[in-house]
């Protein structure tokens, strides 16, 4: 993954930014952009569907529970900050390269 991701860390959590592209043909990580992880999501950007799809996708890829992923900011914006409890930055970097 090109570029450097801005990752904030705390005791038992990490927080990082995402750029979401809703309405894609399938949900997938598609690289990085300006320190954010770019994710295409299949869900439309209405009534929180894209946010739920993003959280479900990340929980699946990180092998964690959806309740361990918190939307910190960007509920109605394509740029979002998520706090992920129990995840290691190395695991995030690994799924971004796959």
UniProtKB/TrEMBL annotation:
Gene3D superfamilies noted in UniProt: YggU-like (3.30.1200.10)
Any one of the GO CC terms: cytoplasm
One Pfam family of this chain: DUF167
PANTHER family: UPF0235 PROTEIN C15ORF40
Similarity comment text for this entry: Belongs to the UPF0235 family.
Name of protein: UPF0235 protein STSP1_00793
Biological source species: Sedimentisphaera salicampi
């Amino acid at each position: 993954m090109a570029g450097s991701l801005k990752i904030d860390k705390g005791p038992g959590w990490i927080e990082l930014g995402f750029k979401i592209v809703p309405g894609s043909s399938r949900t997938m990580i598609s690289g990085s952009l300006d320190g954010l992880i770019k994710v295409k999501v299949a869900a439309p950007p209405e009534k929180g569907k894209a946010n739920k799809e993003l959280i479900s996708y990340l929980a699946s890829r990180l092998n964690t529970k959806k309740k361990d992923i918190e939307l910190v900011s960007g509920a109605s914006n394509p740029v979002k900050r998520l706090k992920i409890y129990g995840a290691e930055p190395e695991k995030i970097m690994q799924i971004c390269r796959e």
